[in-house]
User: Fold these one by one.
Assistant:
Number 1:
Amino acid sequence: MKVLVIGSGGREHALVWKIAQSKLVDKIFCAPGNGGISEIAECIEIKGNDTERLLSFARKEKIDLTVVGPEAPLVLGIVDEFSNYGLKIFGPKENAAKLEESKVFAKKLMAKYNVPTADFNIFDNPDEAKKHVRRIGVPCVVKADGLAAGKGVVVAKSIEEAEKAIVSIMQEKIFGDAGNKIIIEECLEGQEVSILILTDSKAVIPLVSSQDHKRLLDGDNGPNTGGMGAYSPAPVLTEPVFKEIMKNVINRTIAGLTQESITYSGVIYAGIMLTKNGPKVLEFNVRFGDPETQSILPRLQSDLLEAIIATAEGNLSKFAKSGGFKWGKRACVSVVCASKGYPANHEAGKEIFGLEEVKKMENIVVFHAGTKRLPQSRAGKTQFVTNGGRVLGVTGLGNSIKEAIANTYKAVSRINFEGMQYRRDIGSKAL
Ligand code: AMP
Ligand code: GLY
């Protein structure tokens, strides 16, 4: 079959890499893709949010299945559009993508259906919001309602910091209309885990657990980023806690959506804080996590595409009965190598060295994010240059997290580009 993957990051490279291993696939396109993806799929120059052009491409090429990586196309209703034309596509429809598009929607749903989450209040008036912060005190968390590329959350340690966040989100509108409403919520303490599941609203199949590292610098310091690395499994997530999350978070959320006449199909990614009062939801995403996916998919021994098709067709329970996912026992670590200046701004066009050598290393795969492949040199050499903030996800497997960390950092040490920055402590929380 012909598959189209939408997106251009490390997550999409991991998806394309895994889908390419399926017996069911004949040809993969990726829109717009990146340097690394262009080695295993045909990249087409259409942006993920250009629904109209993607639709006409899929119709012209007779694409059998489209897999959406990022949230933006989902929120724009790409699944509704493709479905209207009878094209098979993996991901939630626009009404279900609200779970990520609007934190107010997600919070109200959780409150109504008793899904454990931080206590919260919703505001559409900045003065009321400031008054509330002074009343409850700090620490507190200020969140823009809408999409803000992971930058719409401020964990405020002082009243001034909280007020500044309120002003910039609601009055200066740094995220535009995404800041018309805000949430102010209780600050939770604990370790974070990412729980990803597939669902067609009738059946639920979990993926293995993982943990992201959102801060730029070692020891969880510095500004928030899109994610500087991930590992899987997350040993803090014990079996009883996992069961509790499935029951109280995942099942209640899907049942709640169903009550609201919303059929959810695709991935639900729950960001969970493991607090001393039990697991609580920080946020929902309606897609695979980035960089979590890069640390999850190398552990999958069975065919991802079969599961994706079953989800899109509403046949997930049949897939589960026929054995479901098969996971390997080995642990996986993925370290993000980022450009100088990331996350505020970033350089581009820097040559990346060492990829050929790392390709020969066992237990290592490098997922590209912000890279571009240059035309082959006369010597037949493939050259990549940086083309984004997060450049590579260097990923390694090992018999333990410790071994996976060692394998991965050995590979990282072979890779270099001007201004490259990365965290030295990815996975160390698991030790
Ligand atoms: P979100 O995009 O909602 O997941 O928030 C981004 C990050 O902010 C999370 O990964 C947490 O590290 C932090 N965060 C969000 N909500 C809270 C909360 N209620 N308490 C403490 N930290 C939070
Ligand atoms: N790893 C964070 C995210 O995918 O939103």
Number 2:
Amino acid sequence: MTNTTTADSAKPIPGGTLVLVEFDKGIAWVSMNRPEKRNAISPALAFEMIEVLDALEIDDRCSVVVLTGSGESWSAGMDLKEYFRATDKLSYDERMRVYRANGTWQWKMLRNYGKPTIAMVNGWCFGGAFTPMIACDLAIASDDAIFGLSEINWGIIPAGVVTKAVAGVINQRDSLYYIMTGESFNGVRAAEMGLVNQSVPADKLRERTEALARTLIAKNPFVLRQAKAAYHMAREMSWETAAEYLTAKADQTRALDPERGQDKGMAQFIDDKAYRPGLGEYKRG
Ligand code: COA
């Protein structure tokens, strides 16, 4: 099912041109769709992606977003022609508007997304594409996907916010090695460095990604949302501030969780002896 309306949602999902959406039992498979341009990110794709992500956040058919690419690429990064050469001719204000659209979906929306996100890296992943890939909560790559911080090869630094994103997940030696050499590497190496969670043979990529998405769908969605927000915030804080913040966040989670997960989980473990939190989740519903 691609970009259609069902009884579950009042509005059709936008997109359908440069961004495709396919629903499958709670998973929204979202594809950057310019295969003939290796899914290079153009301004039009960015504007379409903003609308799609915005709509999916409140669409009942979507519990998890999987971000991937049509054809043999995840994404060849920023469209050199449409994002760089074409914008050279624009006024400063017009250029900033286009750049802002890119930052909006690539990290402001994805890093703070209410639902879990998984990058399924199925092929080429270069430069600017690192930002949305890293901004997704989790990432699974094909062993033979090819990654590269190729900016140095064409005379620029990894800007936008690529360098910052890379520094958040890869250690200093490996970050600088790939930033400075522009050498490409495969999915196996990406997993070794912690750039993705795991790499698997190409023919197992969708299956593994779907299994991970189903694991997330089984969890309490409100607590998942709070947990990932807490991670991003606490990471930037001192221990003292983090302790205060996390206590307040935990209280907020308990107070606002529509499922009353904490109380339920506790009762099922302590009173009913019905499950082991170390071995799986409490019985929801
Ligand atoms: N921006 C604009 N166009 C791009 C692009 C990009 N980042 N990446 C690929 N394309 C276009 C090519 O210009 C070509 O267009 P054309 O058919 O009109 O000539 C088409 O996509 C296919 O690319 P091609 O290079 O022929 O494919 P390939 O399979 O041989 O190589 C890559 C794939 C990804 C290795 C190669 O396209 C590449 O190096 N792209 C640039 C990657 C990069 O440095 N990205 C960083 C941007 S921040």
